[in-house]
Design brief:
The protein has five helices and two strands, in the order H-H-H-H-E-E-H. Helix 2 packs antiparallel against helix 4 and helix 2 packs across helix 5. The protein is about 60% helix and about 5% strand. By secondary structure, it is mainly alpha-helical. It has a domain of about 100 residues.
C-alpha cells in the first residue's frame, strides 16, 4: 500500500453521475420544491394565525363560545389568501415542466407516480376553517385524554 491514499475517483463505483446531473445538483434545490415548501409553510402560518385569532376573539367575547364562533367565522374569512393562491397558480403552471412530468401516450395526460397529475386546488377560506376545526378537535381530544389520565 502506498502513502497516497485513495481519492473518491479511485474507489470502485457501480454508478456514474452525469455532467448534467452534477450541474443540476450544483444549482441547488429545484424551484418547484422550494415553491411547494413555501406553499406548505404559508398554509401552516395561516392555520396558526387562525388559532391566534380564535383565542383573541374568545377573549373579546369573554368566553362566550357561540358568539366567539360567529365573530371568528366573519374575521377568518377576511384573511388574505392572495399570496398563497399566487404561489399555487405559479406552481400549477410550472411544476409539470420543472419536474419533467411524463405524458401518458394514450390519454395525453401528465403523469406523476403512475397516476394522472392534478394541479393543487386554489386555497379557500372554507378549507382552512375546516382544517382548523379538525386540528382544534384533535387538540381538545388530546387534552381531554391527558386530563382523564391524570385525574
Amino acid at each position: 500500500m502506498d502513502d497516497k491514499g485513495y481519492g473518491s475517483m479511485d474507489l470502485p463505483m457501480n454508478f456514474k453521475v452525469s455532467l448534467a446531473d452534477r450541474v443540476r445538483a450544483a444549482a441547488g434545490v429545484p424551484a418547484h420544491i422550494r415553491r411547494k415548501r413555501r406553499i406548505e409553510d404559508l398554509e401552516e402560518a395561516i392555520l396558526l394565525a387562525l388559532d391566534e385569532l380564535y383565542e383573541e376573539v374568545l377573549t373579546e367575547t369573554q368566553g362566550d363560545q357561540s358568539q366567539a364562533e360567529a365573530v371568528f367565522d366573519k374575521r377568518a374569512r377576511e384573511v388574505d389568501l392572495r399570496l398563497l393562491n399566487d404561489l399555487i397558480g405559479r406552481h400549477n403552471r410550472w411544476y409539470p415542466i420543472e419536474a419533467n412530468l411524463p405524458t401518458d401516450v394514450h390519454t395525453g395526460k401528465l403523469m406523476m407516480g403512475g397516476a394522472p397529475w392534478s394541479p393543487i386546488a386554489e386555497a379557500r377560506h372554507e378549507d382552512f376553517l375546516r382544517k382548523w376545526r379538525a386540528l382544534r378537535r384533535e387538540i381538545n381530544a388530546e387534552a381531554q385524554r391527558r386530563g382523564d389520565a391524570e385525574g
